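Example 5.3 — DNA-3-methyladenine glycosylase I
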Amino acid sequence: MSESEAADLVADQPPDLVTGDDGIVRCRWGGAPDQIRYHDTEWGFPVADDRRLFEKVCLEGFQSGLSWRTILAKRENFRKAFADFDVAAIADFDDGDVERLVADSGIIRHRGKIRATINNARRVPELVEEFGSLAAFFWSFEPSVDDTVPVGFVAITDESTAMSTALKKRGWKFVGPTTMYALMQAMGLVNDHVAGCEARDRVSDARRDFHRPS
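Solution (predicted structure tokens):
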């Protein structure tokens, strides 16, 4: 792509999109160098793996009141601190582990969020017994919408509210409806890549071919 072609593309580009140095059009948030890989290969692609889903619930909880860029930059530290988000291992964490984590500068040292992560790990077996898997539970809240039509920017939906309510009734913490919608966006329950973003069609194809857990 020539400089003049790139300039014309940027001039005609909606403000919620950005063209990278590689010529790829992305959601504006995904154009930052530390966000490109996550945007291009993870965000929005459907996930059915229970460990990845649990990790995302935990990280979204830690993000509450912060930016996702902060959490993403610390993700490997979180994985190390929380036993790679092995549910059984975290469920066995005790007060000593809480103090260890509060002192760990590599993560978000929020005592309430740390305790919530341990609490939620202890709630996982109950949810698995009830639904068969975490994936079956989370995907039961997938909206019935036309995936080809962008819904625009929202932070909360009826489905994310219902998911939040269901988790809170089962004793989960830091799972508000906005946090749960961010989970739905990241784990592919919805396709919120902006129309015109190169990843949007790839996510749509992945969602079309995805085998929903039941």
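Remark. The longest strand covers residues 17-19.
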